[in-house]
Amino acid sequence: MSNTLKVLGVGEARRYLAQDPATAWVTLAQKYGKTFRYRNLTLTCDPEPVQTLLMRKTHTRRRSRIHRLFRHMPGMAGPLFTEGEMWKRQLHALMPVFHREHIVTCDHVIADATDAFTDAAANVERCPDLFSSVSELGSRIAFEIGYGLTPDQPQAPELRHALESWKSETERSRSRLDDFCIDTRKMLTIPWSCLVMSRRLARVRRIISTIIQDRRARGVHGVNWIDCLHLADFGTNAIACMAAHLFWVYDAVNFIVTCGIYELGRNPIWIDALRVESCAVLGSRSAPALDDLPRLICLSNFMKEVLRRYPGSMGIARQSGSTLSYHGLQIPGGSEILILLHALHHHPDHWDAANAFDPDRWRRHPEPRIPYSFIPFLEGARQCIGRRLAELQFITIISALVRNYTVEIFKDDVRLTPYMVPRFAEAIPFRLRRRSTGGDDGVQE
Ligand code: HEM
User: Fold this and answer.
1) Taking CA 357 as the corner, what is the angle to CA 246 and CA 396, rounded to the nearest 5 degrees?
2) I need a labelling partner for 259 at 20 to 30 A (CA). Which of 75, 270, 358, 430 fits?
3) Is 238 a member of any domain?
4) Taking the complete model, does pTM exceed 0.90, yes or no?
5) Cβ 424 vs Cβ 131: under 8 Å
6) Which domain CATH number covers 285?
7) What is the pLDDT of residues 152-172, one digit of tens each?
Protein backbone atom coordinates (compact mmCIF):
# COMPACT_ATOMS: atom_id res chain seq x y z
CA MET A 1 0.00 0.00 0.00
CA SER A 2 1.32 3.41 -0.87
CA ASN A 3 2.10 5.25 2.35
CA THR A 4 1.04 8.59 0.90
CA LEU A 5 -2.58 8.00 1.91
CA LYS A 6 -3.74 9.86 4.98
CA VAL A 7 -5.39 7.91 7.78
CA LEU A 8 -8.67 8.90 9.38
CA GLY A 9 -9.27 7.80 12.97
CA VAL A 10 -12.54 6.38 14.30
CA GLY A 11 -12.95 9.20 16.84
CA GLU A 12 -12.85 11.86 14.14
CA ALA A 13 -15.22 9.91 11.86
CA ARG A 14 -17.62 9.57 14.79
CA ARG A 15 -17.43 13.33 15.48
CA TYR A 16 -18.12 14.30 11.85
CA LEU A 17 -20.96 11.80 11.57
CA ALA A 18 -22.50 13.16 14.77
CA GLN A 19 -22.33 16.71 13.39
CA ASP A 20 -24.00 15.89 10.08
CA PRO A 21 -24.17 12.36 8.68
CA ALA A 22 -25.02 13.63 5.19
CA THR A 23 -22.00 15.91 4.75
CA ALA A 24 -19.49 14.02 6.93
CA TRP A 25 -17.84 11.95 4.19
CA VAL A 26 -17.51 14.68 1.60
CA THR A 27 -16.09 17.03 4.25
CA LEU A 28 -13.61 14.35 5.30
CA ALA A 29 -12.70 13.70 1.64
CA GLN A 30 -11.82 17.38 1.30
CA LYS A 31 -9.68 17.21 4.40
CA TYR A 32 -7.98 13.84 3.77
CA GLY A 33 -7.97 13.73 -0.04
CA LYS A 34 -10.31 11.79 -2.34
CA THR A 35 -8.68 8.51 -1.31
CA PHE A 36 -7.75 7.84 2.31
CA ARG A 37 -7.54 5.07 4.88
CA TYR A 38 -10.06 4.35 7.59
CA ARG A 39 -9.71 1.30 9.82
CA ASN A 40 -8.84 -1.61 7.51
CA LEU A 41 -10.48 0.05 4.51
CA THR A 42 -9.36 2.30 1.68
CA LEU A 43 -12.08 4.90 1.12
CA THR A 44 -12.37 6.68 -2.19
CA CYS A 45 -14.56 9.18 -3.99
CA ASP A 46 -12.11 9.55 -6.88
CA PRO A 47 -13.95 8.76 -10.14
CA GLU A 48 -10.84 7.27 -11.77
CA PRO A 49 -10.34 4.24 -9.48
CA VAL A 50 -14.11 3.98 -9.12
CA GLN A 51 -14.43 3.39 -12.87
CA THR A 52 -11.72 0.71 -12.76
CA LEU A 53 -13.27 -0.99 -9.73
CA LEU A 54 -16.70 -1.18 -11.33
CA MET A 55 -15.77 -2.01 -14.89
CA ARG A 56 -12.81 -4.42 -14.69
CA LYS A 57 -13.81 -8.02 -14.16
CA THR A 58 -10.88 -8.68 -11.88
CA HIS A 59 -12.46 -6.35 -9.29
CA THR A 60 -16.04 -7.57 -9.59
CA ARG A 61 -15.50 -11.32 -9.32
CA ARG A 62 -15.10 -11.51 -5.55
CA ARG A 63 -17.40 -9.79 -3.08
CA SER A 64 -15.92 -7.65 -0.29
CA ARG A 65 -15.62 -8.88 3.30
CA ILE A 66 -18.55 -6.62 4.22
CA HIS A 67 -20.76 -8.36 1.64
CA ARG A 68 -19.57 -11.74 2.87
CA LEU A 69 -20.38 -10.82 6.47
CA PHE A 70 -23.92 -9.79 5.47
CA ARG A 71 -24.34 -12.99 3.46
CA HIS A 72 -24.08 -15.03 6.66
CA MET A 73 -27.00 -13.24 8.30
CA PRO A 74 -30.19 -15.35 8.01
CA GLY A 75 -32.19 -14.13 5.01
CA MET A 76 -29.39 -12.12 3.43
CA ALA A 77 -27.85 -14.63 1.02
CA GLY A 78 -29.30 -13.06 -2.13
CA PRO A 79 -27.68 -11.60 -5.27
CA LEU A 80 -26.37 -8.43 -3.63
CA PHE A 81 -24.14 -10.42 -1.31
CA THR A 82 -23.37 -13.63 -3.17
CA GLU A 83 -20.60 -14.28 -5.71
CA GLY A 84 -19.38 -16.85 -8.22
CA GLU A 85 -21.65 -19.64 -9.47
CA MET A 86 -24.31 -19.04 -6.80
CA TRP A 87 -24.65 -15.38 -7.81
CA LYS A 88 -24.94 -16.33 -11.51
CA ARG A 89 -27.57 -18.96 -10.74
CA GLN A 90 -29.63 -16.55 -8.61
CA LEU A 91 -29.41 -13.79 -11.17
CA HIS A 92 -30.30 -16.10 -14.03
CA ALA A 93 -33.40 -17.33 -12.18
CA LEU A 94 -34.58 -13.85 -11.15
CA MET A 95 -33.82 -12.01 -14.39
CA PRO A 96 -37.22 -12.63 -16.08
CA VAL A 97 -38.85 -10.54 -13.32
CA PHE A 98 -36.38 -7.66 -13.70
CA HIS A 99 -36.13 -7.70 -17.47
CA ARG A 100 -37.22 -4.45 -19.08
CA GLU A 101 -39.73 -6.31 -21.29
CA HIS A 102 -41.46 -7.61 -18.17
CA ILE A 103 -41.21 -4.39 -16.16
CA VAL A 104 -43.02 -2.41 -18.88
CA THR A 105 -46.01 -4.74 -18.38
CA CYS A 106 -46.15 -3.90 -14.66
CA ASP A 107 -47.12 -0.25 -15.10
CA HIS A 108 -50.81 -0.85 -14.22
CA VAL A 109 -49.83 -2.61 -10.96
CA ILE A 110 -47.80 0.41 -9.88
CA ALA A 111 -50.44 2.87 -11.10
CA ASP A 112 -53.32 1.07 -9.29
CA ALA A 113 -51.37 0.78 -6.06
CA THR A 114 -50.43 4.46 -6.31
CA ASP A 115 -54.09 5.46 -6.79
CA ALA A 116 -55.12 3.47 -3.73
CA PHE A 117 -52.31 5.06 -1.72
CA THR A 118 -53.04 8.66 -2.77
CA ASP A 119 -56.81 8.20 -2.28
CA ALA A 120 -56.25 6.97 1.26
CA ALA A 121 -53.62 9.58 2.13
CA ALA A 122 -55.73 12.47 0.77
CA ASN A 123 -58.43 11.64 3.33
CA VAL A 124 -56.09 12.14 6.24
CA GLU A 125 -55.49 15.64 7.60
CA ARG A 126 -51.94 14.86 8.74
CA CYS A 127 -50.27 11.55 7.86
CA PRO A 128 -47.70 10.80 10.56
CA ASP A 129 -44.71 9.71 8.46
CA LEU A 130 -43.90 9.95 4.79
CA PHE A 131 -41.45 7.03 4.72
CA SER A 132 -43.92 4.66 6.44
CA SER A 133 -46.68 5.60 3.99
CA VAL A 134 -44.40 5.27 0.96
CA SER A 135 -43.10 1.93 2.29
CA GLU A 136 -46.65 0.67 2.59
CA LEU A 137 -47.21 1.55 -1.05
CA GLY A 138 -43.83 0.01 -1.98
CA SER A 139 -44.75 -3.23 -0.18
CA ARG A 140 -47.99 -3.53 -2.08
CA ILE A 141 -46.12 -3.13 -5.37
CA ALA A 142 -43.33 -5.50 -4.31
CA PHE A 143 -45.88 -8.09 -3.26
CA GLU A 144 -47.68 -8.08 -6.55
CA ILE A 145 -44.65 -7.87 -8.83
CA GLY A 146 -42.16 -9.77 -6.69
CA TYR A 147 -44.19 -12.43 -4.92
CA GLY A 148 -47.20 -12.64 -7.27
CA LEU A 149 -49.60 -11.82 -4.39
CA THR A 150 -52.45 -9.33 -4.67
CA PRO A 151 -53.62 -7.59 -1.48
CA ASP A 152 -56.85 -9.66 -1.38
CA GLN A 153 -54.98 -12.98 -1.16
CA PRO A 154 -54.84 -14.19 2.47
CA GLN A 155 -51.13 -15.10 2.22
CA ALA A 156 -50.21 -11.48 1.37
CA PRO A 157 -50.71 -9.93 4.85
CA GLU A 158 -49.26 -13.02 6.50
CA LEU A 159 -46.08 -12.98 4.43
CA ARG A 160 -45.79 -9.23 4.72
CA HIS A 161 -46.02 -9.36 8.49
CA ALA A 162 -43.37 -12.11 8.61
CA LEU A 163 -41.01 -10.21 6.28
CA GLU A 164 -41.45 -6.94 8.13
CA SER A 165 -40.76 -8.62 11.43
CA TRP A 166 -37.57 -10.17 9.96
CA LYS A 167 -36.49 -6.83 8.44
CA SER A 168 -37.09 -4.90 11.66
CA GLU A 169 -34.22 -6.82 13.27
CA THR A 170 -31.82 -5.49 10.59
CA GLU A 171 -32.88 -1.93 11.44
CA ARG A 172 -32.23 -1.96 15.19
CA SER A 173 -29.43 0.48 15.97
CA ARG A 174 -27.94 -1.91 18.55
CA SER A 175 -27.33 -4.57 15.92
CA ARG A 176 -26.81 -2.69 12.65
CA LEU A 177 -23.90 -4.02 10.66
CA ASP A 178 -23.78 -1.03 8.31
CA ASP A 179 -22.47 1.20 11.09
CA PHE A 180 -19.31 3.02 9.94
CA CYS A 181 -18.05 3.09 13.53
CA ILE A 182 -19.02 -0.47 14.45
CA ASP A 183 -17.24 -1.61 17.62
CA THR A 184 -16.62 -4.88 19.46
CA ARG A 185 -19.68 -4.40 21.66
CA LYS A 186 -21.90 -4.28 18.61
CA MET A 187 -20.10 -7.18 16.94
CA LEU A 188 -20.89 -9.26 20.03
CA THR A 189 -24.62 -8.74 19.43
CA ILE A 190 -24.41 -10.37 15.98
CA PRO A 191 -25.03 -13.97 17.16
CA TRP A 192 -28.15 -12.83 19.03
CA SER A 193 -29.39 -10.93 15.96
CA CYS A 194 -28.74 -14.01 13.82
CA LEU A 195 -30.85 -16.08 16.18
CA VAL A 196 -33.74 -13.62 16.06
CA MET A 197 -33.52 -13.31 12.26
CA SER A 198 -33.32 -17.05 11.86
CA ARG A 199 -36.50 -17.60 13.94
CA ARG A 200 -38.36 -14.96 11.97
CA LEU A 201 -37.09 -16.34 8.69
CA ALA A 202 -38.49 -19.74 9.65
CA ARG A 203 -41.94 -18.15 9.60
CA VAL A 204 -41.27 -16.68 6.15
CA ARG A 205 -40.19 -20.15 5.02
CA ARG A 206 -43.41 -21.78 6.27
CA ILE A 207 -45.57 -19.25 4.40
CA ILE A 208 -43.48 -19.53 1.22
CA SER A 209 -43.79 -23.30 1.40
CA THR A 210 -47.60 -23.03 1.56
CA ILE A 211 -47.61 -20.60 -1.36
CA ILE A 212 -45.51 -22.97 -3.48
CA GLN A 213 -47.68 -26.00 -2.62
CA ASP A 214 -50.83 -24.05 -3.34
CA ARG A 215 -49.55 -22.83 -6.70
CA ARG A 216 -48.30 -26.27 -7.62
CA ALA A 217 -51.72 -27.77 -6.82
CA ARG A 218 -53.44 -25.17 -8.99
CA GLY A 219 -50.86 -25.44 -11.78
CA VAL A 220 -50.25 -21.70 -11.57
CA HIS A 221 -46.92 -20.21 -12.59
CA GLY A 222 -46.24 -16.50 -12.96
CA VAL A 223 -43.28 -14.21 -13.59
CA ASN A 224 -42.43 -13.39 -9.99
CA TRP A 225 -39.48 -14.14 -7.68
CA ILE A 226 -41.06 -17.16 -5.96
CA ASP A 227 -42.19 -18.94 -9.12
CA CYS A 228 -39.02 -18.16 -11.07
CA LEU A 229 -36.77 -19.44 -8.27
CA HIS A 230 -38.93 -22.54 -7.86
CA LEU A 231 -38.75 -23.21 -11.60
CA ALA A 232 -34.95 -22.93 -11.41
CA ASP A 233 -34.93 -25.69 -8.74
CA PHE A 234 -34.13 -23.56 -5.72
CA GLY A 235 -35.43 -25.19 -2.53
CA THR A 236 -37.85 -23.58 -0.07
CA ASN A 237 -35.03 -22.45 2.24
CA ALA A 238 -33.22 -20.63 -0.53
CA ILE A 239 -36.45 -19.10 -1.87
CA ALA A 240 -37.40 -17.84 1.62
CA CYS A 241 -33.94 -16.38 1.98
CA MET A 242 -34.15 -14.56 -1.32
CA ALA A 243 -37.71 -13.40 -0.62
CA ALA A 244 -36.35 -11.74 2.52
CA HIS A 245 -33.22 -10.42 0.81
CA LEU A 246 -35.19 -8.80 -2.02
CA PHE A 247 -37.70 -7.32 0.42
CA TRP A 248 -34.76 -5.69 2.21
CA VAL A 249 -33.17 -4.43 -1.04
CA TYR A 250 -36.53 -3.12 -2.29
CA ASP A 251 -36.47 -0.56 0.51
CA ALA A 252 -34.06 1.53 -1.61
CA VAL A 253 -36.87 2.61 -3.88
CA ASN A 254 -39.09 3.47 -0.90
CA PHE A 255 -36.34 5.73 0.38
CA ILE A 256 -35.78 7.42 -2.99
CA VAL A 257 -39.51 8.03 -3.53
CA THR A 258 -39.73 9.45 0.01
CA CYS A 259 -36.82 11.78 -0.79
CA GLY A 260 -38.55 12.83 -4.02
CA ILE A 261 -41.81 13.71 -2.23
CA TYR A 262 -39.86 15.42 0.56
CA GLU A 263 -38.09 17.62 -2.02
CA LEU A 264 -41.43 18.39 -3.71
CA GLY A 265 -42.73 19.53 -0.32
CA ARG A 266 -39.65 21.72 0.13
CA ASN A 267 -39.65 23.05 -3.45
CA PRO A 268 -43.31 23.38 -4.54
CA ILE A 269 -42.16 25.19 -7.68
CA TRP A 270 -41.17 21.75 -8.97
CA ILE A 271 -44.68 20.46 -8.49
CA ASP A 272 -45.94 22.99 -11.02
CA ALA A 273 -43.14 22.33 -13.53
CA LEU A 274 -43.60 18.57 -13.32
CA ARG A 275 -47.39 18.82 -13.53
CA VAL A 276 -47.30 20.88 -16.72
CA GLU A 277 -44.89 18.44 -18.34
CA SER A 278 -46.70 15.27 -17.14
CA CYS A 279 -50.07 16.55 -18.36
CA ALA A 280 -48.59 17.50 -21.74
CA VAL A 281 -46.79 14.19 -22.28
CA LEU A 282 -49.44 11.83 -20.89
CA GLY A 283 -52.52 13.55 -22.34
CA SER A 284 -55.54 11.44 -21.34
CA ARG A 285 -53.43 8.51 -20.08
CA SER A 286 -53.55 8.03 -16.34
CA ALA A 287 -49.94 6.90 -15.78
CA PRO A 288 -46.57 7.09 -17.53
CA ALA A 289 -44.76 4.15 -19.10
CA LEU A 290 -41.01 3.60 -19.04
CA ASP A 291 -40.89 4.56 -22.71
CA ASP A 292 -42.18 8.03 -21.79
CA LEU A 293 -39.03 8.79 -19.81
CA PRO A 294 -37.06 10.41 -22.70
CA ARG A 295 -39.97 12.86 -23.19
CA LEU A 296 -40.49 13.50 -19.48
CA ILE A 297 -37.33 15.59 -19.38
CA CYS A 298 -38.24 17.60 -16.29
CA LEU A 299 -39.25 14.48 -14.36
CA SER A 300 -36.15 12.62 -15.49
CA ASN A 301 -33.97 15.54 -14.32
CA PHE A 302 -35.85 15.65 -11.03
CA MET A 303 -35.28 11.91 -10.52
CA LYS A 304 -31.58 12.21 -11.34
CA GLU A 305 -31.19 15.03 -8.84
CA VAL A 306 -32.97 13.02 -6.13
CA LEU A 307 -30.65 10.09 -6.86
CA ARG A 308 -27.62 12.38 -6.76
CA ARG A 309 -28.57 14.03 -3.47
CA TYR A 310 -29.83 10.83 -1.83
CA PRO A 311 -27.95 7.78 -3.12
CA GLY A 312 -29.46 4.57 -1.73
CA SER A 313 -26.18 3.79 0.00
CA MET A 314 -23.50 6.13 1.41
CA GLY A 315 -20.80 3.66 0.40
CA ILE A 316 -20.32 0.63 -1.79
CA ALA A 317 -17.83 -2.01 -0.68
CA ARG A 318 -15.46 -3.70 -3.12
CA GLN A 319 -12.46 -6.00 -2.90
CA SER A 320 -9.75 -5.22 -5.45
CA GLY A 321 -8.88 -8.29 -7.53
CA SER A 322 -5.44 -7.04 -8.56
CA THR A 323 -3.20 -4.03 -7.88
CA LEU A 324 -4.95 -0.75 -8.56
CA SER A 325 -2.54 1.95 -9.76
CA TYR A 326 -3.50 5.57 -10.30
CA HIS A 327 -2.12 9.05 -9.52
CA GLY A 328 1.08 7.38 -8.29
CA LEU A 329 -0.85 5.29 -5.72
CA GLN A 330 -0.70 1.51 -5.58
CA ILE A 331 -3.51 -0.34 -3.86
CA PRO A 332 -2.72 -4.07 -3.75
CA GLY A 333 -5.10 -6.80 -4.88
CA GLY A 334 -7.26 -8.14 -2.05
CA SER A 335 -7.71 -4.68 -0.49
CA GLU A 336 -11.07 -3.74 0.99
CA ILE A 337 -12.22 -0.53 -0.69
CA LEU A 338 -15.27 1.55 0.09
CA ILE A 339 -16.54 3.74 -2.75
CA LEU A 340 -17.98 6.80 -1.01
CA LEU A 341 -21.05 7.16 -3.20
CA HIS A 342 -22.53 10.15 -1.40
CA ALA A 343 -19.18 11.97 -1.39
CA LEU A 344 -18.71 11.15 -5.10
CA HIS A 345 -22.13 12.74 -5.77
CA HIS A 346 -21.29 15.85 -3.69
CA HIS A 347 -17.60 16.60 -4.10
CA PRO A 348 -17.12 20.26 -5.14
CA ASP A 349 -14.51 19.13 -7.71
CA HIS A 350 -17.28 17.21 -9.49
CA TRP A 351 -20.31 19.45 -9.00
CA ASP A 352 -21.18 23.14 -8.96
CA ALA A 353 -23.23 24.08 -5.89
CA ALA A 354 -23.06 20.42 -4.86
CA ASN A 355 -25.37 20.78 -1.86
CA ALA A 356 -28.14 22.60 -3.73
CA PHE A 357 -31.13 20.56 -4.84
CA ASP A 358 -31.18 21.73 -8.44
CA PRO A 359 -32.80 19.40 -11.01
CA ASP A 360 -32.08 22.07 -13.62
CA ARG A 361 -28.37 21.25 -13.47
CA TRP A 362 -29.30 18.20 -15.58
CA ARG A 363 -30.97 20.42 -18.19
CA ARG A 364 -27.82 22.52 -18.43
CA HIS A 365 -25.55 19.42 -18.51
CA PRO A 366 -27.43 16.18 -19.24
CA GLU A 367 -24.29 14.20 -18.40
CA PRO A 368 -22.14 14.68 -15.28
CA ARG A 369 -19.09 16.89 -15.89
CA ILE A 370 -16.79 14.10 -14.67
CA PRO A 371 -17.50 10.52 -15.82
CA TYR A 372 -18.25 8.13 -12.95
CA SER A 373 -19.06 10.95 -10.52
CA PHE A 374 -22.77 9.98 -10.71
CA ILE A 375 -23.49 6.26 -10.35
CA PRO A 376 -26.65 5.78 -8.24
CA PHE A 377 -27.27 2.29 -9.66
CA LEU A 378 -23.58 1.63 -10.33
CA GLU A 379 -22.26 0.44 -13.68
CA GLY A 380 -20.73 -2.81 -14.84
CA ALA A 381 -21.25 -6.44 -13.83
CA ARG A 382 -22.60 -5.72 -10.34
CA GLN A 383 -24.93 -2.86 -11.16
CA CYS A 384 -28.46 -2.75 -9.76
CA ILE A 385 -30.85 -5.19 -11.43
CA GLY A 386 -33.88 -3.37 -9.99
CA ARG A 387 -33.11 -0.12 -11.80
CA ARG A 388 -35.95 -0.21 -14.38
CA LEU A 389 -38.47 -1.20 -11.75
CA ALA A 390 -37.25 1.55 -9.42
CA GLU A 391 -37.41 4.16 -12.21
CA LEU A 392 -40.91 3.14 -13.25
CA GLN A 393 -42.09 3.22 -9.66
CA PHE A 394 -40.54 6.64 -9.08
CA ILE A 395 -41.98 8.30 -12.19
CA THR A 396 -45.43 6.74 -11.71
CA ILE A 397 -45.78 7.90 -8.10
CA ILE A 398 -44.32 11.37 -8.62
CA SER A 399 -46.30 11.97 -11.80
CA ALA A 400 -49.59 10.91 -10.09
CA LEU A 401 -48.87 13.19 -7.16
CA VAL A 402 -47.98 16.31 -9.13
CA ARG A 403 -50.92 15.94 -11.54
CA ASN A 404 -53.61 15.41 -8.94
CA TYR A 405 -52.38 16.64 -5.56
CA THR A 406 -50.55 19.29 -3.67
CA VAL A 407 -47.95 18.02 -1.24
CA GLU A 408 -47.27 19.59 2.11
CA ILE A 409 -44.61 18.37 4.53
CA PHE A 410 -44.56 19.53 8.14
CA LYS A 411 -40.82 19.14 8.72
CA ASP A 412 -38.33 20.35 6.18
CA ASP A 413 -34.89 20.04 7.68
CA VAL A 414 -34.62 16.40 8.57
CA ARG A 415 -31.23 14.80 9.06
CA LEU A 416 -30.20 11.43 7.70
CA THR A 417 -29.18 8.52 9.91
CA PRO A 418 -25.39 7.99 10.09
CA TYR A 419 -25.39 4.48 8.60
CA MET A 420 -24.13 3.11 5.29
CA VAL A 421 -27.78 2.64 4.23
CA PRO A 422 -29.26 6.02 5.15
CA ARG A 423 -32.82 6.87 6.09
CA PHE A 424 -34.44 10.01 7.49
CA ALA A 425 -33.67 10.18 11.20
CA GLU A 426 -37.14 11.50 12.11
CA ALA A 427 -40.69 10.98 10.98
CA ILE A 428 -41.84 13.46 8.32
CA PRO A 429 -45.54 14.27 8.80
CA PHE A 430 -47.23 15.24 5.54
CA ARG A 431 -50.53 16.04 3.87
CA LEU A 432 -51.80 15.44 0.34
CA ARG A 433 -54.64 17.60 -0.94
CA ARG A 434 -56.50 16.70 -4.06
CA ARG A 435 -56.70 19.29 -6.81
CA SER A 436 -60.30 20.01 -7.83
CA THR A 437 -59.73 18.53 -11.31
CA GLY A 438 -56.62 16.58 -12.35
CA GLY A 439 -54.16 18.98 -13.87
CA ASP A 440 -55.77 22.30 -13.04
CA ASP A 441 -54.59 24.53 -10.28
CA GLY A 442 -57.47 24.53 -7.84
CA VAL A 443 -57.26 22.63 -4.58
CA GLN A 444 -60.34 20.81 -3.28
CA GLU A 445 -61.31 22.12 0.12
C1 HEM B 1 -33.89 3.84 -6.52
C2 HEM B 1 -33.79 2.65 -5.99
C3 HEM B 1 -32.53 1.81 -6.04
C4 HEM B 1 -31.21 2.19 -5.97
C5 HEM B 1 -30.66 3.60 -5.84
C6 HEM B 1 -30.41 0.99 -6.04
C7 HEM B 1 -29.03 0.95 -6.04
C8 HEM B 1 -28.27 -0.19 -6.08
C9 HEM B 1 -26.84 -0.24 -5.99
C10 HEM B 1 -25.94 0.98 -5.81
C11 HEM B 1 -26.46 -1.53 -6.07
C12 HEM B 1 -25.03 -2.09 -5.97
C13 HEM B 1 -24.73 -2.45 -4.52
C14 HEM B 1 -23.42 -3.13 -4.31
O15 HEM B 1 -22.84 -3.72 -5.22
O16 HEM B 1 -22.94 -3.10 -3.16
C17 HEM B 1 -27.66 -2.32 -6.24
C18 HEM B 1 -27.68 -3.67 -6.39
C19 HEM B 1 -28.82 -4.41 -6.44
N20 HEM B 1 -30.12 -3.93 -6.46
FE21 HEM B 1 -30.68 -2.02 -6.42
N22 HEM B 1 -31.26 -0.09 -6.15
C23 HEM B 1 -32.55 0.37 -6.16
C24 HEM B 1 -33.69 -0.37 -6.25
C25 HEM B 1 -33.74 -1.72 -6.33
C26 HEM B 1 -34.94 -2.50 -6.38
C27 HEM B 1 -36.37 -1.94 -6.37
C28 HEM B 1 -34.58 -3.79 -6.43
C29 HEM B 1 -35.51 -4.96 -6.47
C30 HEM B 1 -35.60 -5.83 -5.52
C31 HEM B 1 -33.11 -3.84 -6.43
C32 HEM B 1 -32.35 -4.99 -6.50
C33 HEM B 1 -30.97 -5.00 -6.49
C34 HEM B 1 -30.18 -6.23 -6.51
C35 HEM B 1 -30.75 -7.65 -6.53
C36 HEM B 1 -28.84 -5.85 -6.49
C37 HEM B 1 -27.63 -6.79 -6.54
C38 HEM B 1 -27.16 -6.88 -7.98
C39 HEM B 1 -25.91 -7.72 -8.13
O40 HEM B 1 -24.95 -7.55 -7.36
O41 HEM B 1 -25.90 -8.53 -9.04
N42 HEM B 1 -32.66 -2.55 -6.38
N43 HEM B 1 -28.75 -1.48 -6.23
Assistant:
1) 45
2) 75
3) yes
4) yes
5) yes
6) 1.10.630.10
7) 999 999 999 999 999 999 998
